[in-house]
Amino acid sequence: MIKLINLLKEVLQFDNWKMPSTEQLKQEFEIEHEIKGNEFWGSEEEFLQACKGGQVVTITPEEDKTIRYRSRTESYEELLSLIKSYRSYPKYRNEESLKAIYDGFESNSPMTLPIVIKFANGTKRVFSGNTRMDIAFQLGINPKVLLVNSKVY
Fold it and tell me: Can you tell me the distance from the alpha carbon of 31 to that of 36, in angstroms, rounded to the nearest whole number?
Protein backbone atom coordinates (compact mmCIF):
# COMPACT_ATOMS: atom_id res chain seq x y z
CA MET A 1 0.00 0.00 0.00
CA ILE A 2 2.80 2.45 0.85
CA LYS A 3 4.50 1.84 -2.49
CA LEU A 4 1.19 2.46 -4.26
CA ILE A 5 0.58 5.70 -2.35
CA ASN A 6 4.07 6.98 -3.23
CA LEU A 7 3.53 6.11 -6.90
CA LEU A 8 0.13 7.79 -6.93
CA LYS A 9 1.59 10.98 -5.44
CA GLU A 10 3.67 11.32 -8.60
CA VAL A 11 0.82 10.96 -11.10
CA LEU A 12 -2.50 11.57 -9.34
CA GLN A 13 -4.63 14.49 -10.45
CA PHE A 14 -7.85 15.12 -8.57
CA ASP A 15 -10.39 17.89 -9.01
CA ASN A 16 -13.82 16.41 -8.53
CA TRP A 17 -14.96 17.96 -5.27
CA LYS A 18 -18.69 18.43 -4.82
CA MET A 19 -20.81 20.42 -2.44
CA PRO A 20 -22.48 18.44 0.34
CA SER A 21 -26.19 17.92 -0.22
CA THR A 22 -28.70 19.42 2.19
CA GLU A 23 -29.29 15.93 3.58
CA GLN A 24 -25.55 15.43 4.13
CA LEU A 25 -25.32 18.82 5.84
CA LYS A 26 -28.22 17.97 8.14
CA GLN A 27 -26.60 14.64 9.01
CA GLU A 28 -23.25 16.32 9.73
CA PHE A 29 -25.00 18.90 11.91
CA GLU A 30 -26.77 16.16 13.87
CA ILE A 31 -23.57 14.16 14.44
CA GLU A 32 -20.89 16.83 14.75
CA HIS A 33 -22.94 19.54 16.44
CA GLU A 34 -25.88 18.07 18.29
CA ILE A 35 -24.68 14.62 19.39
CA LYS A 36 -21.21 15.89 20.26
CA GLY A 37 -22.69 18.84 22.17
CA ASN A 38 -20.98 21.61 20.21
CA GLU A 39 -22.38 25.13 20.10
CA PHE A 40 -20.99 26.59 16.88
CA TRP A 41 -24.41 27.71 15.59
CA GLY A 42 -27.73 28.42 17.30
CA SER A 43 -29.74 26.07 15.11
CA GLU A 44 -29.62 23.74 12.15
CA GLU A 45 -31.04 26.53 9.98
CA GLU A 46 -28.23 28.87 11.06
CA PHE A 47 -25.72 26.16 10.13
CA LEU A 48 -27.35 25.61 6.72
CA GLN A 49 -27.27 29.37 6.06
CA ALA A 50 -23.59 29.49 7.05
CA CYS A 51 -22.90 26.68 4.58
CA LYS A 52 -24.78 28.50 1.80
CA GLY A 53 -22.56 31.52 2.44
CA GLY A 54 -19.40 29.43 2.74
CA GLN A 55 -16.40 29.59 0.46
CA VAL A 56 -14.71 26.72 -1.33
CA VAL A 57 -10.99 27.08 -0.65
CA THR A 58 -7.92 24.95 -1.28
CA ILE A 59 -5.95 23.97 1.81
CA THR A 60 -2.19 23.72 1.50
CA PRO A 61 -0.10 21.63 3.90
CA GLU A 62 1.09 24.87 5.53
CA GLU A 63 -2.45 26.11 6.08
CA ASP A 64 -3.53 22.68 7.30
CA LYS A 65 -1.17 23.13 10.25
CA THR A 66 -3.40 25.99 11.46
CA ILE A 67 -6.63 23.96 11.45
CA ARG A 68 -7.52 22.48 14.83
CA TYR A 69 -8.88 18.95 15.37
CA ARG A 70 -7.02 17.58 12.35
CA SER A 71 -5.40 14.17 12.77
CA ARG A 72 -2.80 14.60 10.00
CA THR A 73 -2.15 10.87 9.64
CA GLU A 74 0.60 10.01 7.19
CA SER A 75 -0.33 6.49 6.07
CA TYR A 76 -3.21 4.11 5.47
CA GLU A 77 -2.15 2.07 8.49
CA GLU A 78 -2.05 5.10 10.78
CA LEU A 79 -5.44 6.27 9.53
CA LEU A 80 -6.95 2.80 9.96
CA SER A 81 -5.67 2.70 13.53
CA LEU A 82 -7.31 6.08 14.16
CA ILE A 83 -10.71 5.17 12.74
CA LYS A 84 -10.77 2.00 14.83
CA SER A 85 -11.11 4.35 17.83
CA TYR A 86 -14.21 6.05 16.36
CA ARG A 87 -17.65 5.26 17.72
CA SER A 88 -18.75 4.79 14.10
CA TYR A 89 -16.30 1.88 13.65
CA PRO A 90 -17.01 -0.60 12.14
CA LYS A 91 -20.64 0.15 11.24
CA TYR A 92 -20.04 3.34 9.24
CA ARG A 93 -16.28 3.75 9.05
CA ASN A 94 -14.18 0.64 8.42
CA GLU A 95 -11.50 -0.84 6.17
CA GLU A 96 -13.86 -0.98 3.18
CA SER A 97 -15.05 2.61 3.57
CA LEU A 98 -11.47 3.78 3.98
CA LYS A 99 -10.34 1.95 0.84
CA ALA A 100 -13.33 3.40 -1.03
CA ILE A 101 -12.09 6.92 -0.28
CA TYR A 102 -8.58 6.08 -1.54
CA ASP A 103 -10.14 4.48 -4.65
CA GLY A 104 -12.34 7.55 -5.17
CA PHE A 105 -9.34 9.84 -5.26
CA GLU A 106 -7.48 7.47 -7.58
CA SER A 107 -10.39 7.31 -10.04
CA ASN A 108 -11.31 11.00 -9.75
CA SER A 109 -14.78 10.08 -8.47
CA PRO A 110 -16.93 12.85 -6.94
CA MET A 111 -15.79 13.58 -3.38
CA THR A 112 -17.86 15.61 -0.93
CA LEU A 113 -16.07 18.69 0.36
CA PRO A 114 -14.87 18.53 3.95
CA ILE A 115 -16.21 21.35 6.14
CA VAL A 116 -13.89 23.66 8.08
CA ILE A 117 -15.26 26.25 10.50
CA LYS A 118 -13.76 29.73 10.68
CA PHE A 119 -14.54 31.30 14.05
CA ALA A 120 -15.03 34.99 14.78
CA ASN A 121 -11.49 35.23 16.21
CA GLY A 122 -10.02 33.83 12.96
CA THR A 123 -9.13 30.34 14.23
CA LYS A 124 -10.21 27.33 12.20
CA ARG A 125 -11.40 23.83 13.10
CA VAL A 126 -12.30 20.83 10.97
CA PHE A 127 -16.01 20.07 11.35
CA SER A 128 -16.31 17.10 9.00
CA GLY A 129 -14.09 15.39 6.47
CA ASN A 130 -10.93 14.87 8.51
CA THR A 131 -10.42 11.44 6.89
CA ARG A 132 -10.87 12.83 3.37
CA MET A 133 -8.37 15.57 4.13
CA ASP A 134 -5.83 13.09 5.51
CA ILE A 135 -6.12 10.83 2.48
CA ALA A 136 -5.88 13.75 0.07
CA PHE A 137 -2.65 14.96 1.69
CA GLN A 138 -1.27 11.39 1.78
CA LEU A 139 -1.82 11.23 -1.99
CA GLY A 140 -0.21 14.61 -2.63
CA ILE A 141 -3.52 16.41 -3.21
CA ASN A 142 -4.28 19.78 -1.65
CA PRO A 143 -7.91 19.27 -0.60
CA LYS A 144 -10.65 21.76 -1.20
CA VAL A 145 -12.96 22.44 1.73
CA LEU A 146 -16.14 24.36 2.39
CA LEU A 147 -15.05 27.13 4.77
CA VAL A 148 -18.02 28.26 6.87
CA ASN A 149 -18.22 31.03 9.43
CA SER A 150 -19.34 30.71 13.02
CA LYS A 151 -19.98 33.73 15.22
CA VAL A 152 -18.70 32.02 18.36
CA TYR A 153 -15.21 32.52 19.85
Answer: 7
Q: Residues 80-94: pLDDT tens digits?
A: 999 999 878 898 889
Instruction: Note whether 122 and 65 are within 8 A (CB).
Output: no
Q: Please, are residues 135 and 83 in contact by the beta-carbon 8 Å criterion?
A: no
Report the number of distinct structural domains present in the chain: 1
Q: What is the pTM of this model?
A: 0.89
Structural domain including 55 reads 2-149
CA distance 30 to 44: 8
ω into 20 cis (within 30 of 0): no
| Ramachandran assignment for 149, one of left (phi > 0), alpha (psi -120 to 50 degrees), beta (any other) | beta
Alpha helices in 74-141 (DSSP H): 76-83, 95-106, 130-138
